[in-house]
Amino acid sequence: MKKVLGLLRHGEAGFDFESDFQRELTAKGRSKLIKMSDSLFRADFSPQKIISSAATRTMQTTEIISYGFPNAEVTFHQELYEADSAIITSKISEISDEVETVLLVGHNPGISLFVSQIADQGYLSMEPGMIIILELYIAHWSHVGIGTGIIKEVMI
Predict the structure, then answer these.
(1) Sequence spans of domains, the chain
(2) How does DSSP classify residue 122?
(3) Measuring CA to CA, which of 10, 26, 81, 135 is 20 to 30 A from 114?
C-alpha cells in the first residue's frame, strides 16, 4: 500500500508585522500560489485532507490552495507553527488510515528537514510556495518515518 503526502511551504510573506506569527502573504506570494493551485490540479494531486499551521501566512496559503479542492477537510493546528520534523511526524501519524492523500502546509526549517528525512536524502531547502509530493510506502500514517517515502514531484 501507499499513501501520498504533499508538503507546501507557505507562500512569500512580508515582514511589516508586529509578530512573525501574524505575517501576511505578499501580492507576489498570492499570485504564485494561485498558479501553483492550477499546477496541482494538472498533476492529478487531490488531497482528501489539508492540515496547516495556524499562523496567518499558512492560513492564507491554505485558503488559496484549498479553493481547488472543495471536498478536502481542512484543519489548522497551532503546534505546526515553527514545528520541527518530530512534531510534523507526530501530527501526520494521527491521520485516519482511510485518508490516502494529504497536504500539509508549514514552515521552514521543519518542513524541509521532514522531507529530507522521509526521502532519506540530504537536506532539501524548500523556498516559499514550493510543493514536494512524496509517495509513502506505508499502510498506516502512524508508520511514517525516515526512509519511508520517495519524492514523486517538486513544484516551484
Answers:
(1) 3-140+147-155
(2) S
(3) 26
How many angstroms separate the CA atoms of 74 and 47, rounded? Answer: 10
How does pLDDT run across 23-41, given as a tens digit for each residue? Answer: 999 999 999 999 998 888 7
Return all residues near 106 (Cβ < 8 A) that are at least 6 apart: 7, 8, 9, 10, 52, 53, 58, 80, 83, 88
pTM: 0.95
Q: What is the mean pLDDT of residues 60-68?
A: 95
**Which set of grid coordinates corresponds to residue 23?**
505575517
The CA distance from 156 to 146, in Å, is 24
The CATH number, out of the four listed (3.30.70.890, 3.40.718.10, 3.20.20.370, 3.40.50.1240), of the domain defined by the range 3-140+147-155: 3.40.50.1240
